[in-house]
Amino acid sequence: MRVIYSLGAKFAGGGIGTTAYYAVRGIHRHRMLHLLLCGSYRPTEIPTERIRAMGLLSRVLRRLAVYDSSRRLNHVYNQLYDLWAARHMEPCDVFHGWGNFCLRSLRWAKAIGAVTIVERASSHPLTQQAILQEEYARWGMRFKMPRGSIQRSLEEIAQADYVLIPSDFVRRSFLDQGVADEKLIQVPFGVDIHRFWPISRSGARKPFRVLYVGQVSLQKGVLYLLEAWQLLRWRDAELWVVGRVEREIRPLLRRYTADTIRWVGYVSDPAAIYQQAEIFAFPSLQEGSALVTYEALASGLPVVTTPNAGSVVRDGLEGFIVPIRDVEGLAERLERLRSDEKLRCEMGKAARRRAEDFTWERYGDVLVTAYQQYAMT
After folding, report:
1. What is the mean pLDDT of the segment spanning 71-97?
2. 57-71, 126-140, 208-222, 266-280: lowest mean pLDDT where?
3. Is this structure's pTM higher than 0.85?
4. Which among 29, 229, 318, 370 is least buried, having the fewest CB atoms inside 10 angstroms?
5. Where are the alpha helices (DSSP H) in the chain?
6. What domains are there in the chain, each with its CATH number?
7. Cα–Cα distance, 108 to 60 (Å, whole number)
């Protein structure tokens, strides 16, 4: 079986690039990788003769797109990458392209009879749009997304044979939008359990630390975590916020000036950061399946998150699931975990065990099995 895998981002470069790396590593390990198409790449064990990269133009445009709040430049880049990728397509049995990067490439693959799979790293585009429009309006802003970008995503979903999704939340969003269940292939993400691991904790560390890792944006629900933190009024504890702060949210953060909040900023390797906390909080409004929740589990942290984070956390076992925007519920779960050391330790141990069921090696194997199953039907 020959597989072409296409991603317009930086392969092995963090975020979806990390997910793509472990997918391609699994495909290559099973001797199915025919070609990797990508925007750019970090050298890995994947043979360079199997890689075609757009290169400098990709790096420049994607860097500039970070500063474009209208998201138009990102939309333009996605189209340019897809045009480039379509010119580098070759005969294959399975074409696997990431959403927004693969409309023309997917059409090319279908024309030669390949099985086509589009991967979605978030909820259905219309669900995502509705959630974010509502959230931005709550804070007096307008969510901007080029109409062509959403239409492009919808066309990819309609034309692909299958849609690869990572979580129950994403599945529900697709079913709610009328996508047939048999079109959905659900494969949860994974984590490097050797890179992320717990350290022994004897009693509560002082100061007690709650950790958030991820982009500091409206989508991630950070403002609700900050509101919950103010509600708790803890004086002998710290909230660590780790991640790049998006420009549009900065004015809203000015009201959160407590000296118990530590703004850490972006950290390229957060493994040690997880080990310095007691609880991980991630109140996201919309995700596919947030990798940071897997990392926190592997680090032995109870996780307080939402159903919309798409995590593999089970409520009451490895942490707690609270509804989105539920400030009081979030504060109550944090208070419960802090006050009950036994519960916190039990959930931390359960978290590590849960993470061990979701290794990246397993992810690659399950993905390849899905190729074999669906390419033969």
Report:
1. 96
2. 57-71
3. yes
4. 29
5. 16-29, 56-65, 72-87, 103-111, 125-138, 147-159, 168-176, 222-232, 250-253, 271-274, 291-298, 327-339, 341-355, 360-375
6. 3-190+359-375 (3.40.50.2000), 208-355 (3.40.50.2000)
7. 27
